[in-house]
Design goal:
The chain is an alpha+beta fold. Helices cover 17% and strands 58% of the residues. It has 1 helix and 6 strands. A 6-stranded antiparallel beta barrel has the order 1-2-3-6-5-4. A hairpin with a 2-residue loop joins strand 1 and strand 2. The longest helix has 18 residues. The mean pLDDT is 83.
Length: 106
């Protein structure tokens, strides 16, 4: 699913490929150089609740890896972002989400 990441004053969508408690790997149309600090919002689906469709995870991170990737003739960047600031509620929900996701998907 596409997620919103912001860097300084630029907002853009990325596709998250992998997510864990330390950070995430995403694919972006834009380059993000190493050590770029980003503010981020990731919308995670809630499991078992009808009242809200998603949980917004707000925080900050830093780019720890980036490499160029060609996909169907288009230039993309694989970017690894390490979380540097997530609130206690966000981290609790992230851990629950990851636990449920891996129990359902093996």
């Amino acid at each position: 699913p596409a997620k919103l990441v912001s860097s300084i004053d630029r907002y853009f969508m990325v596709q998250i490929e992998s997510l864990n408690e330390s950070g995430f790997l995403c694919v972006s149309k834009k380059s993000l150089p190493l050590q770029t600090r980003v503010r981020l919002m990731i919308l995670l689906p809630r499991h078992g609740t009808e009242s809200e469709k998603s949980f917004p995870l707000h925080g900050a991170g830093v780019v720890v890896r980036e490499h160029l990737r060609e996909e169907s003739g288009e230039t993309r960047y694989a970017v690894a972002i390490k979380f540097s600031d997530l609130g206690a509620e966000e981290m609790k929900f992230l851990k629950q989400f990851i636990s449920i996701f891996y129990s359902l998907n093996g």
